[in-house]
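The pair is quoted verbatim as follows:
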Amino acid sequence: MTAVSGHRPTAVDPASARAAAEEDLRALFGQSTAVFASLSGPEHLLETANPAFIATIGEERLRTGAPLVDLLPELAGQGFLALLDQVYGTGEPYTGRDVRVMLGSGPHTREAFFDVTYEPRRDASGTVTGIRVIGVETTQVKHAQRLMTEHRALLEQIARQAPLAEVLDGMARCIENFAPQEVLVSVLLADPDGRHLRHGAAPSLPDFYNQAIDGIATGEGVGSCGTAAHRREPVIVTDIATDPFWDDFRGLAERAGVAACWSTPILARDGGLLGTFAMYHRTPRVPQDHDLALTRVFAGTTALAIERHHVERAKAAAEAHARAAHDELARAVRAEQKLRAEAEQRAATAAELTNRVRAAAAAQATRPRPDRCQLGGEPGCTAAAEIKVADSWGDAAWGCPAHVEEAILNVRSVFIATEELGGLAAYLNR
């Protein structure tokens, strides 16, 4: 069993938070180390060196009495041997600040920075016999400066509401660049219900791997990330090949070329699950203090980015809902205004027609009743005029029952005149 878990409180008092932050910074950047070596002769033979110098070059390469170029062949072409020759030849010391040097070779090559002084050594007569190399490695300071610069840039991205995918991808690449050994970073985002994890960022993991774990469930024994999300505490798997948490994903991990996975849950301020932050390694590995400190620093930044994203998304959804409600209300108001206008228009038309009918009826009342039907058209109708009809425009006429029936069925707005004028009664009793 190689899974190890640990819980770090999500809420602490300010003094404890400051102490934890200082502890993380010490773990990340440590203390600068002074190096010393004494070289002799124009070949710069190594006479003595302190433990820090030995640790810098590697104890396996230490051989007193050997030329420095034989101990550190990678220095050739980087200008350091030429500076040693210059100091030895002129007797003038040299001091450099943040001098960059590449140490080691192949996959073990590392970048280092030094504040260094080359001082000439002289005999009793004043002749230069060698050089003292005195330096302070500033690699950690340089990395700290660069890390803080990158961290500040991430915070600025969050503040200006950059897309979450952009922030997470930049953060993952930043950690991969600063980790002392090769590491592949992955961020998974929790679904709203906290039951599944979705792809957030993993710039160095293969696409097939990211696609395969996109949507994995949270639960005990579901890899490092699913378990960390379920437990709400870090889960450290130092050897995927033997850990039971990886039984269902071991073949996938082997295809992706990863052998260790340390996962940390990303928690909101209220303790809710936001996602997981994972560091993968090509070989089985146990985390060092530096690794854990780096994880804590960026897990907090990731939580800030995700929470800000959730807030902005909720705000955008609320604004969209408010706009939709406003638009719906505006449509309802416009529809009500249209209906009211139409109703008012219909009322005005009806009143106008009523007035016309009344006027037509009044006018007809003063005319004598004809003897013959007036609705027979040009051929005329010899039937007696029995029923009076009128239309909406005030026209009225007398007709026989047959022609009155035809007019009512075929002509719009024609109606039987009022009973007082003899129309309705005659029509009903025809």
Residues 367-428 form one domain. Residues 54 and 62 are 7 Å apart (CA to CA). Residues 289-365 form the longest helix (77 residues).
